[in-house]
Amino acid sequence: MNAPTDGAAGTAPALVIADVSKSFGDQTRRVPALGKVSLTVARGEFVSLIGPSGCGKSTLINIVAGLIDGYEGRVTVSGAPLDGPHPSIGMVFQDDSTFPWLSTLQNVEFGMRMAGVNATERRERAMEMLDLIGLRSFADRYPAQLSGGMRQRVALARALAMRPEILLMDEPFAALDEQTRMVLGEELLRLQEELQQTVVFVTHNLGEAVQLSDRVVAMTARPASIKAILEVDLPRPRDSSIVSSDRYGELVAHLWSLLREEAITAFNQRDAAQAGAVR
Amino acid sequence: MTTTTSAPPVSAGPGPAKVRAWPRTVGVSLTRIGIIVLAAALVELAVELRWATPLQVAPPSIVLPALWDGLTTGNYLSLLGTTLAEVGVAFLCAATVGTTLGYLLWRRPLFGRAYEPLLYALASSPIVLLYPVSLVMFGRTPVAVAVLGFVAGLFPVLISTYQAFRRLDDTYIKVAKVLRLTPGQSFLRVLLPAALPSVLVGLRLGLTLTMLTVIAMEYLANVGGVGAELSLAYLRLRSADMYAVLLLIISLSVTFLFLLNLTTRLVVKR
Question: In this structure, are residues B214 and B149 in contact, taking their beta carbons and an 8 Å threshold?
């Protein structure tokens, strides 16, 4: 479905992040949010970013989405430098991003409609996406009539319908309960097998990162930099039964050993910040 | 301790015969009409039994014919037309200016923060008491009435529009950016529909206040439509006419609110 384009863009990595750093605030008080981060994501690869709360993972993914500018370093998408939101990049957010005034089908069609895709093709692609996420029979329902998990699937379908080369997912399952999360994780694995989509996935959940990813990027406490990259050698295709394998357990344990110290540092940073705020 | 549960027994054979349920809306409507009819009957009875004089409370048996006469042979329709025109013009201006200014205040946060407390203070002040100012500026004309109606309706519309945009979910704005919407698309297809439910709440409040103010000013200044007629009927002790006009005013506001609720339901499908 997402056939790589021909030429240089086809051979270039899907995403290159080179020495990207970002600080917030003004000249008098600059708060570094992101240290120097470099990462290359190959086509069709599923890469997760994991790190302590507030470390800057979302800042990084928002930079790649073109939502944050004024950063140091360079980001290229299929070999071309990133300059604002890119047509080849889709995004699914942590919060519910479906439009409550549109039906499921209209939500999925929305991006295509705005991009001027003709009505026939739009409907065809939207229905294809609804089939893919198993919500065809809910095409006429409004988001208020869907569960949280279903709404996230609609948001995913809306992003995929635009046929992005890279899909960014910023903690898309964070607001969902554990069982829904497992089901959607399995769904995502199935979609990944089918579409060979390049995905950059931000999560707090160690198990989720290992279960879904080809590589897991462990990040340090703020300002985030890459502490280690874990290659996930679990066989594909995978489903949720992988969580009962010994190797899965080992990988999760190893990931935690990488993150434990960072999580404690982040915890202390938050404590200090709160104490400062109280003073 | 362990507990065991068993599945509930599955009933065999045909279920209970299906009884066609009485639609709930019919029940609600009948109750509503029933209470109004009962209240009218009580008023009629009170006057009949001399608990109240016809001058204090005109019984429905006199008010309804007076209303009918006023509508068919009297000037009620023309008075109603005047009031509707004043309310319509005032509300249209309040809605247009209020939504535009509310949006602009959101786009210019400095102005928004600077004026917000002032706007709240103005919105909660009794605008109708400014009627002498309006009379001095525009004379005893329907324009003076419409201007005051506009001012009364403006602030709730302005504040609710400003708040509606302020409280917009940031995620919608991000979605619009990621999908590379033009500023026009972003406003018309995302920001406006997202803010619409709260804007409609302000419009409903604005309409109510506009109508109240228009009728109150008509009454106080004895100018224009049904409010002026109410004032005349009261001053000349025409009790039946006074209650007939009151009934007309209540019907008018109920119709307005019904239409606005209907519009809200049609526009906000969520």
Answer: yes
Give how many domains chain A has, as a whole number. Answer: 2
Query: Which positions in chain B touch A105 (Cβ < 8 Å)?
Result: none
pLDDT in tens, A129-176: 999 888 999 999 999 999 999 999 999 999 999 999 999 999 998 888
The residues in A 241-260 lying below 8 A from B, measured between CB atoms, are: none
Does residue A139 sit in the same domain as residue A220?
Answer: no
Inspect the interface and report whether the beta carbons of B180 and A85 lie closer than 8 Å.
yes
Q: What is the pLDDT of residue A10?
A: 57
Of A137, A163, A189, the last residue of a domain is A163
- Dump pLDDT digits (tens) for A145-155: 999 999 999 99
Assess whether A106 and A244 both reside in one domain.
Answer: no
At B169-209, the pLDDT tens digits run 999 999 999 999 999 999 999 999 999 989 999 999 999 99
* H and E: helices and strands count for chain B: 11, 0
d(CA B178, CA A192): 21
The 10s digit of each residue's pLDDT in B26-68 is 888 888 889 988 988 998 888 888 888 877 888 888 889 999 9
Domain span at A147: 101-163
ipTM for the whole complex:
0.87
User: Are both B40 and B166 inside the same structural domain?
Assistant: no
Please state the pTM of the whole predicted model: 0.77
Backbone angles phi, psi at A24, to 5 degrees: -110, 165
Question: Quick one: CA dihedral A249, A254, A258, A262, positive or negative?
Answer: positive
Which among A20, A36, A35 has a CA at the least distance from the CA of A71? Answer: A20
Could you identify the residue written with the tokens 């996230």? A152
**B270 close contact with A: CB closer than 8 A:** yes
Domain, as residue range, for B36 = 22-52
Flag if A91 and B178 touch (Cβ within 8 Å): yes
| Number of domains, chain B | 2
Indicate whether A61 and A137 sit together in one domain.
Answer: no
In a domain, B246, yes or no: yes
Q: With contacts defined as CB-CB under 8 Å, which chain A residues touch B196?
A: 101
Cβ-defined contacts of B250-253 (< 8 Å, 24+): B252/B80, B252/B83, B252/B84, B252/B211, B252/B226, B253/B208, B253/B211
Question: What gap in Å lies between CA B61 and CA B214, rounded to an integer?
Answer: 29
Residues of B in contact with A144 (CB under 8 A): 270
Dihedral angle computed from the Cα positions of residues A141, A203, A192 and A114, in that order, rounded to the nearest 10 degrees: 50
Higher pLDDT, A240 or B14: A240
Q: What is the CATH number of the domain that holds B113?
A: 1.10.3720.10
Same domain, A148 and A191: no
Contacts of A131 (CB under 8 A, 6+ apart): none
Q: Are residues A168 and A263 in the same domain?
A: yes
For residue A114, the chain B residues in CB contact (below 8 A) are 179, 181, 185, 189
Report yes or no: A12 and A41 within 8 Å, Cβ to Cβ.
no
Nearest chain A CA: its distance from B30 CA (Å): 30
Q: How far is CA B46 from CA B42, B56, B78, B137, in A?
A: 6, 11, 33, 46
